[in-house]
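Predicting holo structure, D-xylitol-5-phosphate bound.
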Amino acid sequence: MKIAPSILSADFANLKEDIEKVEDGGADWIHVDSMDGHFVPNLTFGSNIVKAIRPHTELPIDCHLMVENPEDYIKGFAEAGADYISIQYESTKHVHRALQLIKKSDVKAGIVINPATPVSLVEDILSIVDMVLVMTVNPGFGGQSFIPETVNKIRQLDQWKKDKGHDFLIQVDGGINDSTIKVCADAGAEVCVAGSYIYNSKDPKARIQKLKNAVKN
Ligand code: DX5
Ligand code: ZN
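Done. Tokens:
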């Protein structure tokens, strides 16, 4: 299981240190939540934050775009040094075209589905994505509670991977702690995003280890 701490819950005045802390603690990726105040009722940051942190970490930077018209921002995130760019299925009429644009930029492409979005809607694009992110909360804020009804979607994706031989990663995001991570891992999740569980602690390193230990067989 890969752990991707979300910097949404980090201390923005000490972002460099907060990234070093999780990197030292065994984090696998850094998750960047970009929100535009339209697709979700909250505002965060754009590709400038990726550009700023890129020189300070060797870890893959995983960008989750919660923005309308994600097509307009892909080039910027790619040039800033993103390794993964994931777009929300609900955010554009032209999902396939936007995913192609990400791949053309030599960045790995992810598709994200909200809790109310059926997983069947992404079945026809599984061959072109590198990752499917199942939102386990409604996007927009850190610190919300895990929605258990989303777990069936993880199971279905895992089944499709086995049946059809696709090699995309299954990622989950929202409400992840040392008990919900187990539920997701058992269903087939391979990358877990965690924000508040890691950063709202005096010892983020210990929290990452707790997450990893929770899913050790
Ligand atoms: C929510 C974001 C998440 C958020 C998760 O819209 O996509 O990445 O940071 O936060 P926690 O882990 O606190 O639910
Ligand atoms: Zn996210």
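The first strand starts at residue 2 and ends at 5.
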